[in-house]
Structure formats: C-alpha cells, structure tokens
Specification:
The protein contains seven helices and 18 strands. The protein is 27% helix and 25% strand. The protein is α+β, with helices and mostly antiparallel strands and 293 residues long. The termini are far apart. It binds flavin-adenine dinucleotide. Flavin-adenine dinucleotide binds next to β3, α3, β9 and β13.
C-alpha cells in the first residue's frame, strides 16, 4: 500500500489530487484483504479503472483507491464466454474474443475503460450495452466475494446499483461465434462513426451528462446553448461535440466542475431540463442543485 498517490495519472482528463492510500491488489484474496483493512480503518474505498469516466477532486480522495492488477486485470475466452478480471481493459477483451472468433462485444471498441468500470456504469454504445452481454459478476466487499446476476447488479441506463466498497473482481460475458472478418468490419465501422462525431484525440472523460428524456440529446442541447468551445480556466467544452469536456492545457477538476455547473444552468434556462452528470465524481466535489424556479 502506498500513501499520497497522484490520481491525475490515472484519469483520462488528467486532473485530480492524491489518494490518501493506494493499492494494486492482484487477486481476489488480496482485494478482500485490502477492503477489510479499509473497513477497519473507517476509510472510504473507490476503484480507479482506466479513469475514463472519472472526475477526481483537486483536493484528492481521503480514502483507499484501488487499481486492479495481476489476475484481476486478465481476460480470456473460455467455452464461448469471455472471462475477464474487473481491471481488464475492454480493448484486451475485444482482442481476446476476436482471436477466438467470438463476437457480441464489438460495441466496446468505442469505450476506453475496464470491465469493472463498464459494469459499474452499464457502459454501452451503438445499441449494445453490458447488461445485454453480462452473465454474472463476482463482486467483492470487506466480507468476501460473491457472484451476482445482472438483475442483482441493478443495471440501468449508464448506472448500476453498486456502491463504493463493492468491487467488480471478475465478469463473465456471453459471446457468440462470428468470423474474424465480420468482427473487424463492425469495429472499423463503429470507430469511423466515433471519429466523425467525437473528439477522439483529446483528454476527456467521455459524456459529461446522460441523455435526458427529450427529443434532443445532451450534446445537441448544449450545442444549442452556444457552448461549443466555451472555456473556463484550462477546461473547455469540445468544439466538436458539446457533451464532452476537454483538458485544453493545465485544466483542474474545479475548471471542469465550473463548466458542468454552467452547462446545467443554461440547459435548464433554455430547455427547462435538469441534465444529470454521467461522469462519476470522486472526493469532495459537489454539483450544486439548480434552483427550483
Ligand atoms: C473518449 C471516450 C469515449 C467514451 N465513450 C463511451 C461510450 O460510448 N459509452 C459509454 O458507456 N461510456 C463511454 N465513455 C466513458 C467510459 O469509458 C465508460 O464509462 C467506462 O465504462 C469507464 O470505465 P473505467 O474503467 O475507465 O472506469 P473509471 O472511469 O475508472 O470509473 C468509473 C466508475 O466505475 C467505478 N469502477 C471502476 N472499476 C470498478 C470495479 N472494478 N469495481 C467497481 N467499481 C469500479 C469507479 O469507482 C467509478 O465510480 C467514454 C470515455 C471516453 C474518454
């Protein structure tokens, strides 16, 4: 276990302060041991996946941050399913499935996270999501680990019923036989669509807001609020897609939060809609409630 580790190194936006404690468990046993230690110390716990939907407070996280490694970051195709550690990058999962001529998870090519982060978020793209392919997940807490079904995980649109202190140690995903050429063609088509519509070569944390129940997506709504390219400090709303915040150089998490607050205010004023953040907040970050008027 290490003290005061900068979490900015572990987030795709590249902002955020240190974790008070940091550990990289390599097995389920080690993971449960760390969780039990934190519970004994009365410390909050959070997992950092690839930090691709994470905004960490500039003051840091006053608890134990976990990064899953070793066995917990491996993936392999076994008997028609993908057996993956919670820390396995989705890109590795896709690669392993393709090598075994198994498809069904091509949509993850658009999602730069880990399996555990994808379960926590019920990540999805292009009509597919984790809920549609997940058979079961091994979830660890301070008392041990047990298998949960998708229903028990409470998967909904970009969220699950999991709470900090519950860690996805492994997930089994359903795959189906598919020729490699078909998998490659689907992935190429999805990646081309992604490149066309979103900033793919900038430091961002993916979608800032969930899409509201409205004829406009969050991105279209914020574009209509003239927010494309709007900048506060080192953070700016992407000129390419208004539901993305980019680190335009020297951004802090406070800059990103200020943009989130301004975007919510304008969407409320112009469309009467309260946008809900999709990005996950870690540490002392508060998005103030909009006033009721
Ligand atoms: C360019 C870009 C494009 C994106 N496109 C999409 C998209 O199309 N669709 C989509 O759904 N998302 C998208 N995202 C967002 C992001 O990639 C997903 O939400 C992803 O699932 C997050 O995974 P992560 O491992 O990076 O999690 P992190 O960002 O590190 O963490 C997210 C949350 O999950 C928790 N968590 C992480 N690992 C675990 C674990 N093992 N057990 C329990 N909790 C855990 C964290 O504590 C945190 O609360 C995009 C992001 C970027 C930067």
């Amino acid at each position: 276990m290490t003290e005061n580790v900068a979490l900015s190194r572990y987030t795709t936006l590249g902002t955020g302060g240190p974790a008070r404690w940091f550990a990289e468990p390599a097995s389920v046993e080690e993971l449960v041991e760390r969780l039990a230690w934190a519970a004994g110390e009365g410390l909050p716990v959070a997992v950092v996946g690839l930090g691709s939907n994470l905004l960490v407070a500039d003051e840091g996280f006053p608890g134990l941050a976990l990064k899953l490694g070793g066995e917990l970051a491996k993936a392999e195709a076994v008997d028609g399913r993908l057996v993956a550690g919670g820390g396995a990058p989705l890109a590795v999962c896709l690669h392993r499935a393709r090598a075994a001529e198994l498809g069904g998870i091509e949509f993850v090519c658009a999602i730069p996270g880990t399996v555990g982060g994808a379960v926590w978020m019920n990540a999805g793209a292009y009509g597919g999501d984790i809920a549609g392919v997940l058979e079961r997940a091994l979830v660890a807490d301070a008392r041990g680990a047990r298998w949960l079904t998708p229903e028990e995980l409470g998967l909904r649109y970009r969220s699950s019923g999991l709470r900090h202190g519950q860690v996805v140690a492994q997930a089994d995903l359903r795959l189906e036989p598919r020729p490699v050429a078909d998998i490659k063609a689907t992935v190429a088509e999805m990646q081309a669509r992604r490149k066309e519509a979103q900033p793919t070569n900038k430091r961002t944390f993916g979608s800032v807001f969930k899409n509201p129940e409205h004829e406009l997506t969050a991105g279209r709504m914020l574009e209509a609020c003239s927010l494309r390219g709007y900048r506060i400090g080192g953070a700016q709303i992407s000129p390419k897609h208004a539901n993305f915040i980019e680190n335009a150089g020297g951004a802090t998490s406070a800059d990103a939060v200020a943009l989130i607050v301004e975007a919510r205010r304008r969407a409320r004023e112009q469309f009467g809609v309260q946008l809900q953040p999709e990005v996950q907040l870690l540490g002392a970050i508060e998005i103030p409630a909009l006033d009721p008027s």
